[in-house]
Fold this sequence. Notes:
Elements: H1 2-26, E1 33-35, H2 41-54, H3 56-60, E2 62-63, H4 65-84, H5 95-100, H6 104-140, H7 144-169, H8 173-206, E3 214-215, H9 218-237, E4 242-244, H10 245-252
Antiparallel strand pairs: 1-4, 2-3
Amino acid sequence: xxxxxxxxxxxxxxxxxxxxxxxxxxxxxxxxxxxxxxxxxxxxxxxxxxxxxxxxxxxxxxxxxxxxxxxxxxxxxxxxxxxxxxxxxxxxxxxxxxxxxxxxxxxxxxxxxxxxxxxxxxxxxxxxxxxxxxxxxxxxxxxxxxxxxxxxxxxxxxxxxxxxxxxxxxxxxxxxxxxxxxxxxxxxxxxxxxxxxxxxxxxxxxxxxxxxxxxxxxxxxxxxxxxxxxxxxxxxxxxxxxxxxxxxxxxxx
Length: 253
């Protein structure tokens, strides 16, 4: 989780700014960076709120069900606020346009089937992927922490990096960076909040023990503190709804 979050901000955000700046120069435009839409200030506000709370987790040294309640509540309010905000219809293309042009009922059925298919594939692949990753690392002499912190998250984040990079290459700057900001909110609330929930379910189911808090070792606490600090810095950088090439380089560094 900490590796995925740091890659999302440290590589994902600077990458889309760099691609947008490069493509703009090729087309004879001099654009200093990416500017977000005013409405995306809501996402930044909730990202900032989740980031402030995240500092408490390494300080208390554990992830527990209270963190689940707080973080999922932040996400719930965030989703509610977004649902009530005015929005524009997206410009669909390719397979998305084919599905979007369907009548209402078939479109919803296809969407649900795609969701279920994707979930099934992830369910079937996740465990073998994790085991194969650790075995490969052992064979190559790479420690498990490096694999779990960097290689696995890079594989999981790659599809999102590709999609947002395509947005940036087509000069859809706000959509590109906005998608990564939204993803960061989701990961920093739902993903972190789900960890103690799954841990407690496993504790009951596999070990038949009373649910307890997930205690963090000193290295995990430092990882979380570093990730929270990086998130706070990134929020401060784009608090004016802009990210220049220089700021992107600073975040990457």
